[in-house]
Amino acid sequence: MFCDADENSSWDKADQMADRAFELYEDGQIPQALAQLAQAIEINPNNSAWHFNIALALDSMDNFELAIEAYQRALELAPDDPETLNCLAIDFTRTGEYDLALATFDKIHEIAPNFEPGYCNRIITYTEMDQHEKAEQMFYLAQQINPDCPICFYNVGNSLFSRRQYARAIWCWERTAMLEPTHPQINYRIAQAYWANGDLDQAKDYFLRHLRNGPGDVDVILDFGIFLLKIGQLDTAREKFNRILELQSDFTNAVFYLGELALIQNHSVDASRLYCRAIKEDPDLAGPRYRLAQIALGDGSCDEAKK
Fold first, then answer.
1. Contact present, 181 and 209 (Cβ < 8 Å)
2. N or C: which end of the chain has fewer CB within 10 A?
């Protein structure tokens, strides 16, 4: 069947919109990319790749429920695509729908038994379900297909860490770091494992490695600050908490830990001021209220402590 010129023109326009959406996505302009894809699909709703790309864009915005719907629409058009099924299973895991995730991974196994990500990502599902033996089984199945997958080592490392098998987790994560040196979280995770395993010098080294590559990562700066506080490096810890507030002035946990530093150094007036600021910024934060009650009790003010 031949298409008339107007129909061909419309389809060409849809292709151009989809190409433009890819450029916008690569540039980090996700809402604009979604708008272009939506217009392309309005012209040609039968392109499974465009529904898949919508899902990827929604994933990048942590909008996993809508991403699931988009993956399912893509699968209506291409039901045996292992990559789409894999992404759908990952989002089912992210939303806690583990049975659906496992059923989707099983379908991948039926269609493409050598599709390694289907085993690699199932490690995460089983880890979150606390079924760690099955998580390790998936790791070894993935190894048979690709023995050098950095994500497999990373995922099974998370399983090991959650079981407090810190030395084995470190080995897996150092393997990830060797295979994929630019992995965004690997140095931080190794730092956490060394900290948990009591090797403070190595933990500090890996915190610093992470922050050299991501100096603006406020969550890691906070964790590093807490680490420094715990090992008694109070001035350096204070510097980290203040650095967070330079980067993000409403980061309430940094204010709270500045209060902790003040309290450790017996500066109760400064500590109270910082705890009150933390409560004002985040009324649901429990820690500052508890500390204010402790300070009030220490001052002999029982009525104030009850508040």
1. no
2. N
Lowest mean pLDDT among 7-16, 89-98, 243-252: 7-16
Contact criterion met (CB below 8 Å) for 142 and 149: yes
All structural domains of the chain, each given as residue ranges with its CATH number in brackets, are 10-113 (1.25.40.10), 250-306 (1.25.40.10)
Q: What confidence category does residue 307 fall into, taking pLDDT thresholds of 50, 70 and 90? A: low
Averaged pLDDT score across all residues of the chain: 92
Amino acid, single-letter form, for residue 23:
E
Indicate the burial class of 270 (C-beta count within 10 angstroms; 0-12, 13-18, 19 or more).
Answer: middle
Specify the residue for token string 């140095």.
187
Angle of helix 252-264 relative to helix 234-247, nearest 10 degrees, comes to 160
Predicted confidence at residue 156, as pLDDT, reads 98
pLDDT tens-digit profile of 29-62?
999 999 999 999 998 899 999 999 999 999 999 9
What is the DSSP code string of the chain?
-PPPHHHHHHHHHHHHHHHHHHHHHHTT-HHHHHHHHHHHHHH-TT-HHHHHHHHHHHHHTT-HHHHHHHHHHHHHHSTT-HHHHHHHHHHHHHTT-HHHHHHHHHHHHHH-TT-THHHHTHHHHHHHTT-HHHHHHHHHHHHHH-TT-HHHHHHHHHHHHHTT-HHHHHHHHHHHHHH-TT-TTHHHHHHHHHHHTT-HHHHHHHHHHHHHH-TT-HHHHHHHHHHHHHTT-HHHHHHHHHHHHHH-TT-HHHHHHHHHHHHHTT-HHHHHHHHHHHHHH-TT-HHHHHHHHHHHHHTT-HHHHH-
